[in-house]
Amino acid sequence: MAGHSKWANIKRQKARVDAVKGKVFAKMSREIIVSARLGGDPAGNFQLRTAIDKAKAAGVPNDNIDRAIAKGSGNLGADDNFEAIRYEGYGPGGIAILIEALTDNRNRTAADLRTAFSKSNGNLGETGCVGWMFEQKGVVTIAHPGDEETLLEVALEGGAETYDLTTLLNNRDEEFPGAELFCAPADLEALDTSLKAQELNIHQAELRWIPSNTVIVDDPDQARLLVKLMDALEDLDDVQSVTANFDMAEELMEAIAA
């Protein structure tokens, strides 16, 4: 897949440490609340269904999920006034960064983002400044996809445009084989349904922004600033996802982590 980033893949796979688990739960609950506004029955609300699946994969307790559904459905009074906003900016070296947030206070979110960018030699930009460098795709992730020939057949049958073989992590940080199937955003539900009908093990279905081209970062100082910025952005309460158009060697990422 053009623009598929090892960095993005590794960040998605990393299990969150226990110290920030509550923050992850809050973000997942916020996504469920917003999705439940379209209807509280997961069977008839694909967006809610995928939000619930994502929350369960992250270890969010069922009680938290049920409360979020009830809140978004209006069964626990008015839900928080969250709205979805996309922010764009530049990291050190002009790296393009796309941020999706769910916020009840635009001014607070913008101020927090601006601070995070400025601490890592980046800057928050205007709407549209880097968005043209990314394309939104539906992505269905499969665990243990089997042989590649069979995968190709079910991918084509389900309406996928392309696929990538990848490695996933379980809750014990053990690696196992996986595959990501990419489709047009409007085809995500149909692809997910088709793959489930083939009794494949669906790990996650989501909409994802994918850079059309990636920039290789090999300077250690720039790499450290980028990792620091990505971590700072992802740690903000209002931020749901962060996508950037850079990649770097695994050896460099390991050196920075060490």
Kindly summarize this structure in a few lines:
This protein is α+β, with helices and mostly antiparallel strands and 258 residues long.
The low-confidence runs, each spanning 5 or more residues with pLDDT under 50, are: 12-19
CATH class (first level) name of the domain at 6-73: Mainly Alpha
Shape category: globular
Mean pLDDT reading: 87
Q: Roughly what percent helix? A: 40-55%
Order of helices and strands: HHHHEEHEEHEEHEEHEEH
Supply the helix-strand structural class: alpha+beta
Rg from Cα: 18 Å
CATH superfamily of the domain at 6-73: Integrase, N-terminal zinc-binding domain
Q: Counting H and I runs of at least 4 residues, what is the number of helices?
A: 9
User: Which strands sit side by side, in order, in the main sheet?
Assistant: 3-1-2-9
Strand elements, count? 10
* Biggest beta sheet attributes: 4 strands, antiparallel
CATH architecture classification of the domain at 6-73: Orthogonal Bundle
CATH topology of the domain at 6-73: Arc Repressor Mutant, subunit A
Strand content: 25-35%
Main location: cytoplasm
GO molecular function, one term: DNA binding
Domain TACO1/YebC-like N-terminal: 5-75
Pfam families: TACO1_YebC_N, Transcrip_reg
Defining key terms:
alpha+beta, Arc Repressor Mutant, subunit A, four-stranded antiparallel β-sheet, 9 helices, globular
